[in-house]
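Troubleshooting log. The previous structure file for this entry was overwritten by mistake, so regenerating from the original sequence record. Sequence copied from the archived sheet and checked twice against the printout by T.R.
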Amino acid sequence: MNKDLTVGDPQKVLWKFCLPLFGSVIFQQLYNIADSLVAGKFAGENALAAVGNSYEITLIFIAFAFGCNIGCSVIVSRLFGAKNFKDMKTAVYTTLISSGILCGILMLGGFLLGKELLILIHTPSEIFHDSALYLDIYILGLPFLFFYNVANGIFSALGDSKTPFIFLAISSVANILVDILFVAAFKLGVAGVAWATFICQGISCILAIWVVLKRMHAIKTEEKVPKFSKKILKDIAVIAIPSILQQSFISVGNIVIQSVINGFGPEVIAGYAAAIKLNNMIITSFTTIGNGISNYAAQNIGANKISRIKQGYKAGMKLVWMICVPVVLIYVFAGKYLLYLFMDDVNGEAMRTGIQFLRIVAPFYFIASIKLATDGFLRGAGMMKQFMAATVTDLILRVVLAIVFAKMFGSIGIWCAWPIGWSIGTGVSTVFYHYGPWREKKDGV
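Regenerated output below.
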Protein backbone atom coordinates (compact mmCIF):
# COMPACT_ATOMS: atom_id res chain seq x y z
CA MET A 1 0.00 0.00 0.00
CA ASN A 2 1.06 3.62 -0.61
CA LYS A 3 2.57 5.39 2.42
CA ASP A 4 3.01 9.11 3.15
CA LEU A 5 6.52 9.60 4.61
CA THR A 6 5.87 13.23 5.56
CA VAL A 7 3.85 12.48 8.71
CA GLY A 8 4.64 10.66 11.94
CA ASP A 9 7.79 10.28 14.02
CA PRO A 10 10.72 10.50 11.54
CA GLN A 11 12.68 7.62 13.09
CA LYS A 12 9.72 5.25 13.19
CA VAL A 13 8.60 6.25 9.69
CA LEU A 14 12.08 5.88 8.19
CA TRP A 15 12.90 2.60 9.91
CA LYS A 16 9.52 1.07 9.10
CA PHE A 17 10.03 2.05 5.48
CA CYS A 18 13.71 1.09 5.14
CA LEU A 19 13.79 -2.26 6.97
CA PRO A 20 11.72 -4.05 4.30
CA LEU A 21 14.04 -2.49 1.71
CA PHE A 22 16.96 -4.02 3.59
CA GLY A 23 15.22 -7.38 3.56
CA SER A 24 14.51 -6.98 -0.16
CA VAL A 25 18.12 -6.33 -1.08
CA ILE A 26 19.27 -9.33 0.93
CA PHE A 27 17.01 -11.51 -1.21
CA GLN A 28 18.10 -9.66 -4.34
CA GLN A 29 21.73 -10.41 -3.56
CA LEU A 30 20.81 -14.06 -3.17
CA TYR A 31 20.45 -14.09 -6.96
CA ASN A 32 24.15 -13.36 -7.43
CA ILE A 33 25.31 -15.33 -4.41
CA ALA A 34 23.31 -18.36 -5.51
CA ASP A 35 24.90 -18.15 -8.96
CA SER A 36 28.41 -18.19 -7.52
CA LEU A 37 27.59 -20.71 -4.81
CA VAL A 38 26.05 -23.25 -7.16
CA ALA A 39 28.70 -22.67 -9.83
CA GLY A 40 31.54 -23.17 -7.35
CA LYS A 41 30.05 -26.20 -5.63
CA PHE A 42 28.63 -28.11 -8.60
CA ALA A 43 30.61 -26.89 -11.62
CA GLY A 44 34.05 -26.22 -10.14
CA GLU A 45 36.42 -23.38 -9.26
CA ASN A 46 36.77 -22.20 -12.88
CA ALA A 47 32.99 -21.85 -13.16
CA LEU A 48 32.99 -19.76 -9.98
CA ALA A 49 35.74 -17.57 -11.45
CA ALA A 50 33.83 -17.22 -14.76
CA VAL A 51 30.63 -16.05 -13.06
CA GLY A 52 32.58 -13.62 -10.87
CA ASN A 53 34.54 -12.31 -13.84
CA SER A 54 31.40 -11.65 -15.91
CA TYR A 55 29.64 -10.11 -12.93
CA GLU A 56 31.91 -7.07 -13.03
CA ILE A 57 30.75 -6.33 -16.59
CA THR A 58 27.08 -6.87 -15.72
CA LEU A 59 27.47 -4.06 -13.18
CA ILE A 60 27.57 -1.63 -16.12
CA PHE A 61 24.03 -2.65 -17.09
CA ILE A 62 22.94 -2.59 -13.46
CA ALA A 63 24.24 1.00 -13.26
CA PHE A 64 21.81 2.13 -15.96
CA ALA A 65 18.91 0.23 -14.41
CA PHE A 66 19.78 1.74 -11.01
CA GLY A 67 19.82 5.23 -12.53
CA CYS A 68 16.35 4.73 -14.02
CA ASN A 69 15.18 3.51 -10.61
CA ILE A 70 16.57 6.51 -8.74
CA GLY A 71 15.51 9.15 -11.28
CA CYS A 72 11.95 7.90 -11.36
CA SER A 73 11.81 7.28 -7.62
CA VAL A 74 12.96 10.75 -6.54
CA ILE A 75 10.67 12.63 -8.96
CA VAL A 76 7.65 10.43 -8.22
CA SER A 77 8.34 10.87 -4.47
CA ARG A 78 8.32 14.65 -4.79
CA LEU A 79 5.10 14.66 -6.81
CA PHE A 80 3.47 12.18 -4.42
CA GLY A 81 4.52 14.32 -1.43
CA ALA A 82 3.06 17.40 -3.16
CA LYS A 83 -0.15 15.45 -3.97
CA ASN A 84 0.32 16.19 -7.70
CA PHE A 85 -1.05 12.84 -8.87
CA LYS A 86 -1.52 13.78 -12.52
CA ASP A 87 2.17 14.55 -13.10
CA MET A 88 3.13 11.67 -10.84
CA LYS A 89 1.38 9.17 -13.12
CA THR A 90 2.90 10.81 -16.19
CA ALA A 91 6.34 10.44 -14.58
CA VAL A 92 5.73 6.71 -14.14
CA TYR A 93 4.67 6.18 -17.76
CA THR A 94 7.48 8.39 -19.08
CA THR A 95 10.04 6.34 -17.17
CA LEU A 96 8.70 3.04 -18.44
CA ILE A 97 8.85 4.21 -22.07
CA SER A 98 12.30 5.83 -21.86
CA SER A 99 13.75 2.89 -19.88
CA GLY A 100 12.56 0.46 -22.54
CA ILE A 101 14.33 2.44 -25.27
CA LEU A 102 17.54 2.71 -23.23
CA CYS A 103 17.45 -1.01 -22.47
CA GLY A 104 17.20 -1.87 -26.18
CA ILE A 105 20.27 0.25 -26.97
CA LEU A 106 22.27 -1.38 -24.18
CA MET A 107 21.30 -4.89 -25.30
CA LEU A 108 22.56 -4.16 -28.80
CA GLY A 109 25.81 -2.76 -27.43
CA GLY A 110 26.20 -5.70 -25.06
CA PHE A 111 25.84 -8.34 -27.74
CA LEU A 112 28.26 -6.51 -30.05
CA LEU A 113 30.93 -5.61 -27.48
CA GLY A 114 30.61 -8.20 -24.68
CA LYS A 115 33.50 -10.42 -25.79
CA GLU A 116 35.72 -7.39 -26.43
CA LEU A 117 35.13 -6.29 -22.84
CA LEU A 118 36.14 -9.73 -21.58
CA ILE A 119 39.34 -9.49 -23.62
CA LEU A 120 39.93 -5.96 -22.34
CA ILE A 121 39.95 -7.11 -18.70
CA HIS A 122 42.42 -9.90 -19.50
CA THR A 123 40.02 -12.79 -18.87
CA PRO A 124 42.11 -15.99 -18.59
CA SER A 125 41.61 -18.47 -21.45
CA GLU A 126 40.45 -21.19 -19.03
CA ILE A 127 37.31 -19.25 -18.13
CA PHE A 128 36.74 -17.13 -21.27
CA HIS A 129 34.10 -19.34 -22.92
CA ASP A 130 32.00 -19.68 -19.76
CA SER A 131 32.33 -15.96 -19.00
CA ALA A 132 31.08 -15.07 -22.50
CA LEU A 133 28.20 -17.55 -22.28
CA TYR A 134 27.03 -16.23 -18.91
CA LEU A 135 27.26 -12.64 -20.17
CA ASP A 136 25.22 -13.32 -23.34
CA ILE A 137 22.35 -14.91 -21.40
CA TYR A 138 22.46 -12.11 -18.85
CA ILE A 139 22.16 -9.47 -21.59
CA LEU A 140 19.15 -11.31 -23.02
CA GLY A 141 17.38 -10.75 -19.69
CA LEU A 142 18.11 -7.02 -19.45
CA PRO A 143 14.46 -5.96 -20.02
CA PHE A 144 13.53 -7.85 -16.84
CA LEU A 145 16.35 -6.14 -14.93
CA PHE A 146 15.34 -2.66 -16.14
CA PHE A 147 11.60 -2.84 -15.67
CA TYR A 148 11.89 -4.58 -12.32
CA ASN A 149 14.20 -1.81 -11.06
CA VAL A 150 11.81 0.87 -12.30
CA ALA A 151 8.91 -0.90 -10.58
CA ASN A 152 10.90 -1.04 -7.34
CA GLY A 153 11.62 2.68 -7.61
CA ILE A 154 7.92 3.42 -8.04
CA PHE A 155 6.94 1.28 -5.06
CA SER A 156 9.52 3.07 -2.91
CA ALA A 157 8.37 6.49 -4.13
CA LEU A 158 4.84 5.64 -3.01
CA GLY A 159 6.13 4.64 0.42
CA ASP A 160 5.57 0.92 -0.21
CA SER A 161 8.60 -1.18 0.69
CA LYS A 162 6.70 -4.37 1.49
CA THR A 163 5.51 -5.34 -2.01
CA PRO A 164 9.00 -5.58 -3.56
CA PHE A 165 10.14 -7.51 -0.49
CA ILE A 166 7.48 -10.15 -1.09
CA PHE A 167 8.36 -10.44 -4.79
CA LEU A 168 12.07 -10.75 -4.10
CA ALA A 169 11.68 -13.26 -1.28
CA ILE A 170 9.70 -15.62 -3.46
CA SER A 171 11.79 -15.22 -6.62
CA SER A 172 15.14 -15.50 -4.79
CA VAL A 173 14.21 -18.78 -3.15
CA ALA A 174 12.94 -20.03 -6.50
CA ASN A 175 16.20 -18.94 -8.15
CA ILE A 176 18.27 -21.03 -5.74
CA LEU A 177 16.13 -24.10 -6.40
CA VAL A 178 16.24 -23.65 -10.18
CA ASP A 179 20.01 -23.01 -10.01
CA ILE A 180 20.53 -26.35 -8.30
CA LEU A 181 18.13 -28.12 -10.67
CA PHE A 182 19.81 -26.78 -13.83
CA VAL A 183 23.43 -27.18 -12.66
CA ALA A 184 23.42 -30.17 -10.32
CA ALA A 185 20.67 -32.25 -11.95
CA PHE A 186 20.73 -31.19 -15.61
CA LYS A 187 24.53 -30.50 -15.71
CA LEU A 188 24.10 -27.24 -17.63
CA GLY A 189 27.08 -25.59 -15.91
CA VAL A 190 27.42 -21.81 -16.14
CA ALA A 191 24.58 -21.64 -18.68
CA GLY A 192 22.24 -23.24 -16.14
CA VAL A 193 23.13 -20.57 -13.58
CA ALA A 194 22.39 -17.80 -16.08
CA TRP A 195 19.10 -19.29 -17.31
CA ALA A 196 17.87 -19.77 -13.74
CA THR A 197 18.34 -16.06 -13.05
CA PHE A 198 16.71 -15.17 -16.38
CA ILE A 199 13.56 -17.18 -15.64
CA CYS A 200 13.07 -16.12 -12.01
CA GLN A 201 13.85 -12.47 -12.58
CA GLY A 202 11.50 -12.46 -15.56
CA ILE A 203 8.57 -13.72 -13.54
CA SER A 204 9.24 -11.15 -10.79
CA CYS A 205 9.44 -8.34 -13.34
CA ILE A 206 6.14 -9.20 -15.01
CA LEU A 207 4.31 -9.39 -11.68
CA ALA A 208 5.85 -6.14 -10.41
CA ILE A 209 4.91 -4.16 -13.53
CA TRP A 210 1.37 -5.55 -13.40
CA VAL A 211 0.98 -4.34 -9.80
CA VAL A 212 2.45 -0.91 -10.65
CA LEU A 213 0.01 -0.39 -13.52
CA LYS A 214 -2.86 -1.52 -11.30
CA ARG A 215 -1.80 1.01 -8.63
CA MET A 216 -1.64 3.81 -11.20
CA HIS A 217 -5.12 2.96 -12.47
CA ALA A 218 -6.47 3.08 -8.90
CA ILE A 219 -5.20 6.65 -8.36
CA LYS A 220 -7.93 8.87 -9.80
CA THR A 221 -7.24 12.25 -11.43
CA GLU A 222 -9.67 14.84 -12.79
CA GLU A 223 -7.71 15.48 -15.99
CA LYS A 224 -6.53 13.04 -18.61
CA VAL A 225 -3.00 11.85 -17.82
CA PRO A 226 -0.41 12.23 -20.63
CA LYS A 227 1.61 9.07 -21.22
CA PHE A 228 4.82 10.98 -21.96
CA SER A 229 6.26 14.37 -21.03
CA LYS A 230 9.54 15.85 -22.23
CA LYS A 231 9.62 18.20 -19.24
CA ILE A 232 9.19 15.40 -16.74
CA LEU A 233 11.73 13.28 -18.63
CA LYS A 234 14.18 16.16 -18.23
CA ASP A 235 13.46 16.32 -14.48
CA ILE A 236 14.01 12.56 -14.21
CA ALA A 237 17.20 12.78 -16.27
CA VAL A 238 18.64 15.46 -13.95
CA ILE A 239 18.56 12.84 -11.17
CA ALA A 240 19.04 9.70 -13.28
CA ILE A 241 22.05 10.71 -15.37
CA PRO A 242 24.34 11.55 -12.41
CA SER A 243 23.19 8.32 -10.73
CA ILE A 244 23.94 6.35 -13.91
CA LEU A 245 27.32 8.05 -14.24
CA GLN A 246 28.08 7.35 -10.59
CA GLN A 247 27.25 3.68 -10.90
CA SER A 248 28.97 3.48 -14.30
CA PHE A 249 32.14 4.99 -12.89
CA ILE A 250 32.00 2.45 -10.10
CA SER A 251 31.43 -0.34 -12.62
CA VAL A 252 34.30 0.78 -14.85
CA GLY A 253 36.47 1.14 -11.77
CA ASN A 254 35.55 -2.38 -10.70
CA ILE A 255 36.38 -3.64 -14.18
CA VAL A 256 39.81 -2.01 -13.97
CA ILE A 257 40.33 -3.57 -10.54
CA GLN A 258 39.13 -6.92 -11.91
CA SER A 259 41.70 -6.69 -14.69
CA VAL A 260 44.43 -6.16 -12.07
CA ILE A 261 43.13 -9.14 -10.06
CA ASN A 262 43.04 -11.30 -13.21
CA GLY A 263 46.80 -10.95 -13.42
CA PHE A 264 47.12 -13.06 -10.27
CA GLY A 265 45.47 -16.17 -11.81
CA PRO A 266 42.22 -18.19 -11.50
CA GLU A 267 42.61 -19.06 -7.80
CA VAL A 268 42.84 -15.44 -6.69
CA ILE A 269 39.99 -14.58 -9.09
CA ALA A 270 37.83 -17.30 -7.52
CA GLY A 271 38.63 -16.17 -3.97
CA TYR A 272 37.84 -12.58 -4.83
CA ALA A 273 34.65 -13.63 -6.66
CA ALA A 274 33.37 -15.33 -3.51
CA ALA A 275 34.41 -12.58 -1.09
CA ILE A 276 33.11 -9.75 -3.28
CA LYS A 277 29.67 -11.38 -3.32
CA LEU A 278 29.57 -11.14 0.47
CA ASN A 279 30.93 -7.60 0.34
CA ASN A 280 28.43 -6.50 -2.31
CA MET A 281 25.56 -7.90 -0.28
CA ILE A 282 26.20 -5.48 2.58
CA ILE A 283 27.28 -2.52 0.41
CA THR A 284 24.19 -2.94 -1.79
CA SER A 285 22.12 -3.12 1.40
CA PHE A 286 23.42 0.27 2.50
CA THR A 287 22.88 1.65 -1.01
CA THR A 288 19.28 0.43 -0.97
CA ILE A 289 18.68 1.97 2.45
CA GLY A 290 20.18 5.14 0.96
CA ASN A 291 17.59 4.91 -1.82
CA GLY A 292 14.87 4.69 0.82
CA ILE A 293 16.36 7.74 2.52
CA SER A 294 16.22 9.52 -0.85
CA ASN A 295 12.48 8.80 -1.05
CA TYR A 296 12.00 10.05 2.52
CA ALA A 297 13.92 13.25 1.78
CA ALA A 298 12.20 13.83 -1.58
CA GLN A 299 8.69 13.37 -0.18
CA ASN A 300 9.39 15.79 2.69
CA ILE A 301 10.99 18.33 0.38
CA GLY A 302 7.97 18.03 -1.93
CA ALA A 303 5.73 18.70 1.06
CA ASN A 304 8.00 21.56 2.29
CA LYS A 305 8.69 19.78 5.60
CA ILE A 306 12.41 20.55 5.71
CA SER A 307 12.82 20.17 9.49
CA ARG A 308 12.19 16.43 9.16
CA ILE A 309 15.35 15.99 7.05
CA LYS A 310 17.78 16.40 9.97
CA GLN A 311 15.71 14.10 12.16
CA GLY A 312 15.69 11.54 9.36
CA TYR A 313 19.47 11.83 8.97
CA LYS A 314 20.06 10.88 12.61
CA ALA A 315 17.61 7.97 12.29
CA GLY A 316 19.34 6.78 9.12
CA MET A 317 22.76 6.75 10.82
CA LYS A 318 21.41 4.69 13.72
CA LEU A 319 19.87 2.18 11.34
CA VAL A 320 22.95 1.52 9.20
CA TRP A 321 25.25 1.21 12.22
CA MET A 322 22.90 -1.28 13.86
CA ILE A 323 23.24 -3.40 10.71
CA CYS A 324 27.02 -2.93 10.63
CA VAL A 325 27.77 -4.40 14.05
CA PRO A 326 26.72 -8.04 13.46
CA VAL A 327 27.92 -8.04 9.83
CA VAL A 328 31.42 -6.84 10.70
CA LEU A 329 31.74 -9.38 13.53
CA ILE A 330 30.60 -12.25 11.31
CA TYR A 331 32.76 -11.31 8.31
CA VAL A 332 35.92 -10.71 10.35
CA PHE A 333 35.73 -13.64 12.75
CA ALA A 334 33.62 -16.18 10.85
CA GLY A 335 33.98 -15.14 7.22
CA LYS A 336 35.78 -18.35 6.31
CA TYR A 337 32.69 -20.37 7.16
CA LEU A 338 30.64 -18.30 4.71
CA LEU A 339 33.34 -18.79 2.06
CA TYR A 340 33.06 -22.57 2.57
CA LEU A 341 29.71 -22.28 0.82
CA PHE A 342 31.42 -21.28 -2.41
CA MET A 343 34.41 -23.62 -2.58
CA ASP A 344 35.54 -27.06 -1.51
CA ASP A 345 39.29 -26.53 -1.07
CA VAL A 346 39.40 -24.96 2.39
CA ASN A 347 43.19 -24.69 2.39
CA GLY A 348 43.77 -23.39 -1.14
CA GLU A 349 44.82 -19.97 -2.42
CA ALA A 350 41.22 -19.07 -3.28
CA MET A 351 40.11 -19.53 0.33
CA ARG A 352 43.09 -17.58 1.68
CA THR A 353 42.33 -14.74 -0.72
CA GLY A 354 38.67 -14.55 0.34
CA ILE A 355 39.47 -14.52 4.06
CA GLN A 356 42.15 -11.87 3.56
CA PHE A 357 39.75 -9.61 1.65
CA LEU A 358 37.00 -9.81 4.29
CA ARG A 359 39.32 -9.17 7.23
CA ILE A 360 40.80 -6.06 5.62
CA VAL A 361 37.62 -4.55 4.21
CA ALA A 362 34.78 -5.49 6.61
CA PRO A 363 35.82 -3.30 9.60
CA PHE A 364 35.39 -0.24 7.39
CA TYR A 365 31.71 -0.93 6.70
CA PHE A 366 31.00 1.55 9.50
CA ILE A 367 32.63 4.25 7.35
CA ALA A 368 31.06 3.12 4.06
CA SER A 369 27.58 3.03 5.63
CA ILE A 370 27.80 6.70 6.64
CA LYS A 371 28.69 7.69 3.08
CA LEU A 372 25.94 5.68 1.41
CA ALA A 373 23.25 6.89 3.83
CA THR A 374 24.42 10.50 3.44
CA ASP A 375 24.42 10.10 -0.34
CA GLY A 376 20.74 9.19 -0.05
CA PHE A 377 19.94 12.61 1.40
CA LEU A 378 22.03 14.38 -1.24
CA ARG A 379 20.13 12.58 -4.04
CA GLY A 380 16.74 13.17 -2.46
CA ALA A 381 17.52 16.89 -2.20
CA GLY A 382 18.70 17.03 -5.81
CA MET A 383 22.32 17.83 -4.81
CA MET A 384 23.64 15.74 -7.68
CA LYS A 385 26.90 17.65 -8.28
CA GLN A 386 27.92 17.16 -4.67
CA PHE A 387 26.81 13.54 -4.79
CA MET A 388 28.92 12.94 -7.90
CA ALA A 389 31.97 14.69 -6.43
CA ALA A 390 31.97 12.46 -3.34
CA THR A 391 31.50 9.29 -5.39
CA VAL A 392 34.18 10.09 -7.96
CA THR A 393 36.66 10.94 -5.19
CA ASP A 394 36.10 7.55 -3.57
CA LEU A 395 36.28 5.65 -6.85
CA ILE A 396 39.40 7.29 -8.30
CA LEU A 397 41.28 6.72 -5.07
CA ARG A 398 40.30 3.04 -4.93
CA VAL A 399 41.23 2.36 -8.56
CA VAL A 400 44.53 4.23 -8.53
CA LEU A 401 45.59 2.81 -5.18
CA ALA A 402 44.60 -0.72 -6.24
CA ILE A 403 46.88 -0.48 -9.28
CA VAL A 404 49.78 1.04 -7.32
CA PHE A 405 49.46 -1.18 -4.25
CA ALA A 406 49.16 -4.35 -6.37
CA LYS A 407 52.61 -3.68 -7.80
CA MET A 408 54.04 -2.91 -4.38
CA PHE A 409 52.37 -5.52 -2.14
CA GLY A 410 50.68 -8.05 -4.44
CA SER A 411 46.97 -8.89 -4.22
CA ILE A 412 46.73 -7.79 -0.56
CA GLY A 413 47.49 -4.26 -1.72
CA ILE A 414 44.33 -4.25 -3.86
CA TRP A 415 42.11 -4.95 -0.87
CA CYS A 416 43.74 -2.11 1.12
CA ALA A 417 42.54 0.43 -1.45
CA TRP A 418 38.89 0.00 -0.39
CA PRO A 419 39.14 1.46 3.16
CA ILE A 420 41.15 4.49 2.02
CA GLY A 421 38.70 5.41 -0.76
CA TRP A 422 35.68 4.92 1.50
CA SER A 423 37.15 7.06 4.29
CA ILE A 424 37.93 10.08 2.14
CA GLY A 425 34.68 9.79 0.15
CA THR A 426 32.71 9.71 3.41
CA GLY A 427 34.39 12.88 4.59
CA VAL A 428 33.44 14.66 1.37
CA SER A 429 29.79 13.46 1.53
CA THR A 430 29.26 14.52 5.14
CA VAL A 431 30.70 17.99 4.50
CA PHE A 432 28.28 18.47 1.61
CA TYR A 433 25.35 17.30 3.77
CA HIS A 434 26.10 19.59 6.70
CA TYR A 435 26.43 22.59 4.40
CA GLY A 436 23.43 21.66 2.28
CA PRO A 437 20.71 24.13 1.23
CA TRP A 438 18.25 22.92 3.91
CA ARG A 439 20.53 24.36 6.58
CA GLU A 440 18.81 27.74 6.29
CA LYS A 441 15.36 26.61 5.12
CA LYS A 442 12.27 26.34 7.27
CA ASP A 443 9.06 24.37 6.82
CA GLY A 444 6.66 25.77 4.22
CA VAL A 445 9.23 28.16 2.73
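The mean pLDDT is 84. Archived copy saved in two places this time.
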